[in-house]
Amino acid sequence: MATITTRTVEYPADGLTMIGHLALPAGVDRRPAVLLGPEGTGLSDVERRRADALAELGYVALAFDLHGGRYLGDPEEMLARCMPLLADPDRMRRIGHAALDELRTEPRTDPDRIAAIGYGTGGAIALELGRGGVNLRAIGTVNATTTGRPGEAARIRCPVWAGVGSEDPIMPPAQRNAFTAEMQAAGVDWRLVVYGGALHAFHHPPVDHPVVPGVGYHPQHAQRAWRDVVDLLAECLPVTEDLGA
């Protein structure tokens, strides 16, 4: 296993002091980078471990914050914050841009080779960065087949991969169809993987607090979705051309 280093980073966004988790691969050279967004509950050890795993693969990875260092384990509190956020594309973009700016300040980051991967609310933010015209190499989302304002998907300049559970009541077939129609109409290079039998947040290990209805862990599909994310990065943001630099 490659030696990585990690540190906490603080940056302002959404009127809060966000507390992200930065993971750096071995070496001192510039590397491609990944912005990693969490579910609506906020940044947890699950996303921190994913950022670490990406660093082990050779990426600079920043798992970004949504709630000013807080993890919202109470479903009502989480929905009270996330629902207005998801209804405000500009606000989502500001949160995403703040994290992206923080990632770009890291000297190891190649600012021209960045991908955005997100889960739930974090995935919606990744998509909004693309709709806002940010130069990304790839966008990957799980549980976030969200649609945007009419016509703005045409500003997405990279492949988009989306994963969703077939039994997800929060992102049901009608929502998935609206998302794919938007991507297709905009001429985006898009892919959608539907994981059979999976609920919302199927990728996230069980938690010790209440969750919203329709959430459930599916260990097999969680592993498959992670492999699909890694494959997306390997295709669109390979690290091999940086090795030995």
From TrEMBL:
Pfam family, one: DLH
Residues spanning the signal sequence: none
GO molecular function annotations of the record: hydrolase activity
SUPFAM superfamilies: alpha/beta-Hydrolases (SSF53474)
Keywords assigned: Hydrolase
Source organism superkingdom: Bacteria
Domain Dienelactone hydrolase, residue spans: 20-235
Family assignment from sequence similarity: Belongs to the AB hydrolase superfamily.
Protein name: Dienelactone hydrolase
Protein source organism: Streptomyces variegatus
Organism lineage string: Bacteria, Bacillati, Actinomycetota, Actinomycetes, Kitasatosporales
